[in-house]
From TrEMBL, chain A:
This is 3-oxoacyl-ACP synthase. It comes from the Bacteria.
Automatic annotation (TrEMBL), chain B:
Residues 2-391 form the Ketosynthase family 3 (KS3) domain. PROSITE patterns: KS3_2. CDD domains: KAS_I_II. The keyword Transferase applies. Belongs to the thiolase-like superfamily. Beta-ketoacyl-ACP synthases family. InterPro entries: Beta-ketoacyl_synthase, Ketoacyl_synth_C, Ketoacyl_synth_N, PKS_Beta-ketoAc_synthase_dom, Thiolase-like. Keywords: Transferase. Signal peptide: none annotated. It comes from the Bacteria. One of its GO terms (biological process) is fatty acid biosynthetic process. GO terms for cellular component: cytosol. This is 3-oxoacyl-[acyl-carrier-protein] synthase-1.
Automatic annotation (TrEMBL), chain C:
It holds the Pfam family PP-binding. Residues 5-86 form the Carrier domain. The keyword Nucleotidyltransferase does not apply. It comes from the Bacteria. InterPro entries: ACP-like_sf, PP-bd_ACP, Ppantetheine_attach_site. NCBIfam families: PRK09184.1. This is Acyl carrier protein. Keywords: Phosphopantetheine, Phosphoprotein.
Length: 198, 393, 88
C-alpha cells in the first residue's frame, strides 16, 4: 500500500488561518468580513470569488493557500467531506423561494460545487468526491486518497474537512502525496485537526 | 489488486415501477412514468414530474414502520429498493457489509414541510435532523443493521454513480468483500423551483437528444446494487460485473457543461482504460441525456470524440425523469437489465437529430448482443462519471 | 445617445447588488458597455438572475432565456426594454 505524506496543511477556524502550524492571518470579525479580509490577504484578482457561496469561499481560500507555492499537478484529486453539506446556502435559497427562487443561490445548494470552483480556478480535470460524515473522519479521507494513488488515478490528493454551520466554520485542508520517507498516519492527521493553536 | 467486482443483487423503485419486474416491464412496453404532481404539494401543477404514486404513509406501511418513525421520503424509497437488492443477492447477514449511499436532496422534503411548525409544535421535530443528508443514509443502514462501513456521497447527479465506483474500488483493492452501493433522492419543491429558476425545466415530456428538446423533468427514485468479490459470488447468480469506472471534472462552470464535453470525455476515457477496453467493445450507451439544450449537445460531442463508430445509444430519463443523485443507480440497474435480457431500451419522445452532432438514439425496443454497457452520469460542479458494466468478469 | 435617466442608475445599482459585483460602483458602468463577455464579464447564471430582477422589480416575465441575451446587451438596451414593457 502507498505511504502518504502531508506536503502542506491549512486550518481555518476561530477567525484564524494557520498554515503548517503557524498563524498566517487573523481577524476577529464576523464570518462575512473574515472571508472578505482573508481574500484580500491572498492578494489575487479573481472577481468570481465574490459570487461564490460561503462554503465555496472557505474552500477556495484554503486551497489557494496550500496550492500557492506548489506547482499544480493536473492530476491532483480532490477528496472533501463535511457534516453540514450545503446547509448554509440551502437556507438562503429556501428564503428566496417564498418570493422569487434565485438561480444564483440555487446553484450553490450542493456541497460539491466548491470542488468545481477549485477545479475551474486551477484547471484541474482530475477525480473528485464529496463525503457527508457525522464528524471529521481522517481514516476515510486517507484511505480513499491511498486508493486513488495506488490505482494511479492521481499523483497528489487535496483532502479536506470543510464545514460551515450557523456561521461557524471549521476547515482543515491538506495536500498529500506519496512519500517513501515520512508517512502521515491517521493519528497524526487527527492530531493536527484537534490541536488548539493558541 | 485486480479482483473482479460481481453484481449479485439489485433493487429499484422509480416512477415506472416498485421493483425490478415492474421497471423492466415498463421499459419494454415503452411506458413512461411522467405525470403532473399528485403527491408533491406544489404550485407548479402543470409541470410533468416522474413521481412515485405512493404517499409516505403508504411507504411506511409497506415497511411496517411504526407511526413515530423519522424516515424521510428518500429513506423510505431507499429502504424498499435496498430490501429488494439484498433479497435478490440472498444476503441475510449484514455484519461485514459496507454501504455507500448517494443522495443530494436528502431530507429536504421534510424540512420544507415542517420547518415552520418546528418552533411551536413538537410533533414533527424528529425530522429536524432530516435536513442532514447523512441522516437518510443512517436510517436506511439502521433498518438493516448495517454498521461496518457506512458513508454518504453528495456530488449532485453523479452521486450514485460515484458510490458504485467507490464500492467497486473497495472490493477490487481487497478492503471489503461485499458492499451495497447506489442512491436515493425524492422530489421536493426545493429542487423543482430551483431547476425551474435555471430555466431548464421542460413543461412537456423530456426529449433527450432531440433538436427540439426543451429541458429536463425531475423524478424520484432509489436503486442499489450488491457488489461482491468474485470468491463470495462463486456459487451465486451473477447479474454482471463492474468492469470500468472513471471520474473527471469538467473545470468549466458551476452548472453548465463545457462546449466540447471535456469532463465527460475524460470520464469515458478513464472508464475504458480501467476496463482495458477499446471503444468499439461497448455495445450500448445509457447516456446521461437530461434533455437540456446544454447537456445533450455537450454529451453528444464527448461521445463523438470517444467513439469512432457510435454504439446503440439511449437516455432512459425519458421514462423516469431526472432522478438526481439516484440517476446513476437506476441507470446502472437498467444497464444490467440490458445485459440480462440482451435488449436495448428506447429513448422516448425523439423526433429529429441535433443539427450539430446528428446522433440518433434507439427509439424502439431492440434485441441485441450486449456484453458491455457504458453508463454516464454528470453532476453540477463539473463532476462527470462513467461506469462500464459487463456480462462476464 | 439616450440620456441618463434614474432608471439607468437604478439598474446599475441593482445589478451591482444582485450580482455581487464587488468593488464596483454605479459610475464604473457605462450605459453602452457590454454587460456580458468582455464587458462586466457576467455569465449565464447572472443572466438568469437578471431575468428574476426584471420580474421582481418591473413585473416583466421572460420565458425564453435566449431573449435575455439581447435585452441584457447593455444598460441602455435594458432600460429601453423595461420602459416599453414594465407593468410596475
Amino acid at each position: 500500500m502507498a505511504n502518504l505524506g502531508v506536503e502542506h496543511w491549512v486550518r481555518i477556524k476561530n477567525e484564524r488561518i494557520i498554515l503548517d502550524g503557524e498563524v498566517i492571518f487573523s481577524s476577529e470579525v464576523d464570518i462575512a468580513r473574515f472571508l472578505k479580509a482573508s481574500f484580500k490577504f491572498l492578494n489575487i484578482k479573481y472577481p468570481k470569488f465574490h459570487k461564490m457561496d460561503r462554503l465555496s469561499k472557505l474552500g477556495f481560500i484554503a486551497s489557494e493557500i496550500v496550492l500557492k507555492n506548489n506547482n499544480i499537478d493536473e492530476e491532483t484529486a480532490l477528496v472533501f467531506s463535511n457534516n453540514s453539506s450545503s446547509l448554509d446556502s440551502d437556507q438562503n435559497y429556501q428564503e428566496s423561494v417564498k418570493d422569487f427562487p434565485s438561480p444564483s443561490l440555487f446553484v450553490y445548494t450542493l456541497p460539491n460545487i466548491v470542488l468545481g470552483e477549485i477545479s475551474i480556478r486551477h484547471q484541474l480535470k482530475s477525480e473528485n468526491v464529496f463525503f457527508i460524515e457525522d464528524e471529521f473522519n481522517a481514516n476515510l479521507l486517507i484511505d480513499y486518497s491511498k486508493q486513488l494513488i495506488e490505482s494511479k488515478k492521481a499523483n497528489k490528493v487535496l483532502c479536506a474537512w470543510l464545514n460551515l454551520h450557523n456561521d461557524e466554520y471549521d476547515v482543515f485542508l491538506w495536500l498529500s502525496s506519496e512519500s517513501h520517507k515520512k508517512e502521515a498516519s491517521e493519528e497524526q492527521i487527527r492530531k493536527i485537526y484537534d490541536a488548539d493553536y493558541d | 489488486m485486480s479482483r473482479s467486482v460481481a453484481v449479485t443483487g439489485m433493487g429499484i423503485f422509480s416512477a415506472i415501477g416498485k421493483d425490478l419486474e415492474e421497471n423492466h416491464s415498463s421499459l419494454i412496453h415503452g411506458k413512461h412514468g411522467l405525470s403532473t404532481p399528485e403527491i408533491l404539494e406544489t404550485t407548479h401543477q402543470k409541470l410533468p414530474i416522474g413521481e412515485i404514486k405512493a404517499t409516505n404513509i403508504d411507504l411506511a406501511k409497506n415497511l411496517n414502520l411504526d407511526e413515530s418513525h423519522a424516515f424521510t421520503r428518500a429513506a423510505l424509497l431507499g429502504t424498499i429498493a435496498l430490501k429488494e437488492a439484498v433479497k435478490n443477492a440472498k444476503i441475510k447477514d449484514f455484519t461485514n457489509i459496507g454501504f455507500v449511499n448517494g443522495t443530494s436532496v436528502g431530507g429536504m422534503d421534510m424540512t420544507e414541510r415542517f420547518y415552520r411548525e418546528y418552533e411551536n409544535d413538537a410533533t414533527n421535530r424528529r425530522f429536524i435532523q432530516a435536513q442532514h443528508p447523512g441522516f437518510t443514509t443512517e436510517q436506511i443502514a439502521s433498518y438493516f443493521g448495517i454498521n461496518n462501513y457506512v458513508t454518504t456521497i453528495s456530488t449532485a447527479c453523479s452521486s450514485a454513480a460515484n458510490a458504485i465506483m467507490m464500492g467497486a474500488r473497495l472490493i477490487k483493492s481487497g478492503r471489503l468483500d461485499r458492499v451495497i452501493v447506489g442512491g436515493t433522492d425524492c422530489l421536493s419543491r426545493f429542487t423543482l423551483n430551483g431547476f425551474n429558476s435555471l430555466m431548464i425545466y421542460s413543461e412537456d415530456f423530456p426529449k433527450p437528444f432531440d433538436a427540439e428538446r426543451k429541458g429536463l423533468n425531475l423524478g424520484e427514485a432509489a436503486a442499489y446494487l450488491v457488489l461482491e468479490s468474485a470468491e463470495l459470488a462463486e456459487n451465486k447468480e451473477v447479474l454482471g460485473y463492474v468492469s470500468g469506472y472513471g471520474n473527471a471534472n469538467d473545470a468549466f462552470h458551476q452548472t453548465a457543461s463545457s462546449e466540447n464535453g471535456e469532463g465527460a470525455y475524460l470520464a469515458m476515457q478513464k472508464a475504458l482504460k480501467t476496463a482495458r477496453f477499446n471503444p468499439h467493445q461497448i455495445d450500448y450507451i445509457n447516456a446521461h441525456g437530461t434533455a437540456t439544450q446544454n447537456n445533450d449537445l455537450s454529451e453528444s460531442r464527448a461521445l463523438i470524440r470517444t467513439f469512432k463508430e457510435m454504439p446503440a445509444l439511449s437516455s432512459t430519463k425519458s421514462f423516469t425523469g431526472h432522478t438526481l443523485a439516484a440517476a446513476g443507480g437506476i441507470e446502472a440497474v437498467f444497464s444490467l437489465l440490458a445485459i440480462k435480457h440482451q435488449q436495448i431500451y428506447p429513448n422516448l419522445n425523439f423526433n429529429s437529430v441535433i443539427n450539430e452532432t446528428k446522433l440518433e438514439p434507439v427509439t424502439e425496443l431492440k434485441s441485441a448482443k450486449i456484453d458491455h454497457v457504458l453508463s454516464n452520469s454528470f453532476g453540477f460542479g463539473g463532476n462527470c462519471t462513467s461506469l462500464i458494466f459487463s456480462k462476464n468478469g | 445617445m439616450p440620456i441618463m435617466t434614474d432608471l439607468h442608475t437604478e439598474l446599475k445599482a441593482s445589478i451591482i447588488e444582485q450580482l455581487n459585483l464587488e468593488d464596483m460602483e454605479v459610475s464604473d458602468i457605462e450605459n453602452d458597455e457590454p454587460l456580458f463577455g468582455d464587458g462586466l464579464g457576467l455569465d449565464s447564471i447572472d443572466a438568469l438572475e437578471l431575468i428574476v430582477l426584471l420580474e421582481k422589480d418591473y413585473g416583466i416575465k421572460l420565458t425564453d432565456p435566449k431573449k435575455g441575451r439581447e435585452i441584457f446587451e447593455s444598460i441602455n438596451k435594458m432600460a429601453d426594454f423595461i420602459e416599453a414593457n414594465r407593468t410596475k
